[in-house]
Amino acid sequence: MAAAPSLCVLRYFNRWNKNLKKEGLCSVLLRTSSFSGRHYCSSNLVAAACATALRSPDLVALEYADLNLTHKVSEELGHVRIRQHVNPLSASFSMPANVPDWDEVFKDPTLPLMVDVGSGSGRFLLWLAKRNPEEKNYLGLEIRQKLVKRANFWVKELALSNIHFLFANATISFNQLVSTYPGPLMLVSILCPDPHFKKRHHKRRVVQKHLVDSIVKNLMRGGQVFIQSDVLEVALDMRNQFDADVDVLHHIDALSQSVLCDNEGWLLRNPMGIRTEREIHAEFEGARIFRRMYQKMT
Ligand SMILES: C[S@@+](CC[C@H](N)C(=O)[O-])C[C@H]1O[C@@H](n2cnc3c(N)ncnc32)[C@H](O)[C@@H]1O
């Protein structure tokens, strides 16, 4: 029989239950065993969550509970309908994105920059930006404009001055955008990119040689690239492309004993402190996440 949840756990649980009921969701929380350590990850809470029906969107809401975002958006932007995939090769995505005035989008545009390619809803980057307000700037590149609008709405709501989202086809705009940024590029993440399974659609994948070259060129010395996918084939494709730059980019497990990888060189843990939405959905469905981290040496 499950252990009885403690009072504080129940309070936490009930608070979220109220918020989530507004969205028509049941309240649940479960962290996978591969990702523990957050304050609400207690066996009691997991036991409480297990007593209810689990759905992965509920887990996303709870994993990002600190941001307290969802209900504010529907009032201002209406319901954001999200198309599953777009074709980045279509004419409407072929124009390079306009370079913003970095002084307008960031309070201090000389801070080191993290770029998340294919930032989706933006919650992952918002979470990081909120935790590191004075240390880094965060830029999300996303090809679905509605997601970008909503994410920038959230930026305002949270009054964050170290994060911005741009509507951009990252494959073609990355270099132009990042090379004009006044500070150093310290981290690029490409997390669970759209798989485009059919062979004839592989050219739609965001990681193409041109993007890899741009990342390697713009990254500061010691800067890092973090890639992951729940689809092994996609992870291997990204891995092969970044491994090809072995003179400049080194796989991190060769550099640090503290970074644990399996025999194939996949990171055993998410090193970011929070899972992305796709990662939460995939792990909920029992998938494994294939992760790899690189560091620029020269
Ligand atoms: C499967 S989602 C993953 C989102 C997020 N990284 C996560 O892990 O939850 C992939 C995202 O990449 C975006 N995307 C696909 N191709 C892109 C491109 N060429 N440039 C920018 N974003 C792209 C998609 O619109 C989508 O939001």
UniProtKB/TrEMBL annotation:
Record's keyword terms, sorted: Methyltransferase, S-adenosyl-L-methionine, Transferase, tRNA processing
Keyword flag tRNA processing: yes
The keyword NADP belongs to this UniProt entry's keyword annotation: no
CDD domains, alphabetized: AdoMet_MTases (cd02440)
GO molecular function: tRNA (guanine(46)-N7)-methyltransferase activity
Domain of life: Eukaryota
EC annotation from Swiss-Prot or TrEMBL: 2.1.1.33
Swiss-Prot/TrEMBL catalytic activity: guanosine(46) in tRNA + S-adenosyl-L-methionine = N(7)-methylguanosine(46) in tRNA + S-adenosyl-L-homocysteine
A Pfam family this chain is assigned to: Methyltransf_4
Coiled-coil ranges (or none): none
GO cellular component terms attached to this protein's record: tRNA methyltransferase complex
NCBIfam families per the UniProt record, alphabetical: tRNA (guanosine(46)-N7)-methyltransferase TrmB (TIGR00091)
Protein name (database record): tRNA (guanine(46)-N(7))-methyltransferase
Species for this entry: Castanea mollissima
